[in-house]
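Shipment paperwork, digital attachment
Item: protein structure file
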Amino acid sequence: MGSFSIWHWVVPVMIFGGIAFAIGRGLRREAARPWELKGIGGWLAWLAVGQVFALLLAIGCFALTFEVFGFLSALQPPAVHIAFYARTAMAFCYLILVGATTMALFRKKKYFTELFLCQWITFPVVLIVATVILTFVTGASSSAIISPEDITAAVIAFGLEAIWVWYTQVSKRVANTMVN
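Attachment content:
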């Protein structure tokens, strides 16, 4: 209980070191015209950090869907199993979308802005559809499925991501960086 494993240090250092390396690599490249805003820097660097954390959060949410798997038994109706598998499939698809968006950002692909917009739209859709499926299958009220705190957190995250979506659409740095 009182011991502190080396892995407690290695994992955060690797995560934050990877983020710092990716941002640093983007900052090292010099533009052909130095007056142009180009590369992962400025506000785009903050977006990159947020995108990496969104990927880690999506991985965590996908892993948490398997926590429910232990509660499934043969005694439960097949509809509960179907709801679980549907929720898992939606979490996996969202994880793939966030991963693809993150890869497009660091590879500086032109389609990053479209993927980021899709990620923004998909976030509330997955939340709403999962809640509706679980409410329909279990017969429980939606307030038993999702708490007001979860709804508040989702609305705040959706609003903050809306600001970043706007930034990716109007930013000269994003337009000059996403050229591959």
